[in-house]
Specification:
The protein is α/β, with parallel strands linked by helices and about 200 residues long. Helices cover about 50% and strands about 15% of the residues. The mean pLDDT is about 80.
C-alpha cells in the first residue's frame, strides 16, 4: 500500500509547482512508497481524471493515506469534502492536508472534520434559503416554471454522448452519469442504446 498525493490547479495554464515543494519535502520523510495524482481543472468540475484514479486505487485498497497541499484542492464545497472524508474514514484510509495541519488521525483533525460538517450544513441551509427567496420573487413577478416549454429538446451533443459512453465503459452508474452530464436518465439510456456509426 502506498500514500496517494493529490495536486490540482484551477486551469490548464497553471502548474502545480507552488504545491510541490511542501509535498515533496513531506513525502521524503515518509517510509512508505508515494504515488502522485494530478489534475488541471476547476474545483467545481466533477470529472477529474487524477482524482478518479486516486479514488479507484483507494477503493481497491492500494492507498492507505491521501495527502493534499490544501483542503480546497479536493473541492470547493464543505459538503463535497465531507462526503469524501467520510468515505476515506469508512475505508480506513488516512487523510492529511499539509497547509491546514489537518490530519484525521489526530484529535485536532477530527475536530476540524466536525467543524467542516457544521459548515456543510450551513451551506445547505443558506442555499435553500436563497432558492426559496428566488422562487418567492419569481412568483411575485408572475413567472412560472416546471419543465421545458413544449417543443423544446434537451441538447444531447456529440461531446456529451461520447462522455456518456466513456463514463459507462468505466463502470459509472447511469444516475451518476446523468448528474455529471446534466441530462435525464432517460436521455442517458437513449444515448447508450444508440448504435455508434
Amino acid at each position: 500500500m502506498s500514500i496517494g498525493i493529490y495536486l490540482r490547479v484551477s486551469s490548464k495554464t497553471q502548474d502545480t509547482r507552488s504545491q510541490e515543494p511542501d509535498l515533496q519535502t513531506w513525502a521524503k520523510a515518509q517510509p512508505d512508497e508515494v504515488t502522485w495524482f494530478k489534475d488541471k481543472f476547476t474545483g467545481t468540475v466533477t470529472v477529474r481524471p487524477g482524482l478518479d484514479r486516486l479514488l479507484a486505487d483507494v477503493r481497491r485498497g492500494k492507498i492507505k493515506k491521501v495527502v493534499v497541499w490544501r483542503l480546497e484542492r479536493l473541492g470547493r464545497t464543505a459538503k463535497g469534502l465531507l462526503i469524501l472524508l467520510d468515505e476515506l474514514k469508512q475505508l480506513g484510509v488516512g487523510f492529511v492536508s499539509l497547509r491546514e495541519g489537518f490530519d484525521l488521525a489526530t484529535p485536532a483533525g477530527r475536530l476540524m472534520a466536525g467543524v467542516l460538517a457544521s459548515v456543510a450544513a450551513y451551506e445547505t441551509e443558506v442555499r435553500k434559503e436563497r432558492q426559496l427567496a428566488g422562487i418567492a420573487k419569481a412568483k411575485a413577478d408572475g413567472k412560472s416554471w416546471g419543465g421545458r416549454k413544449a417543443g423544446t429538446r434537451i441538447r444531447l451533443t456529440e461531446e456529451k454522448e461520447k462522455l456518456i459512453r466513456q463514463l459507462h465503459s468505466e463502470g459509472k452508474p447511469v444516475a451518476a452519469i446523468s448528474r455529471l452530464v446534466g441530462l435525464t436518465r432517460k436521455t442517458v439510456y437513449a444515448a447508450l442504446r444508440r448504435k455508434v456509426a
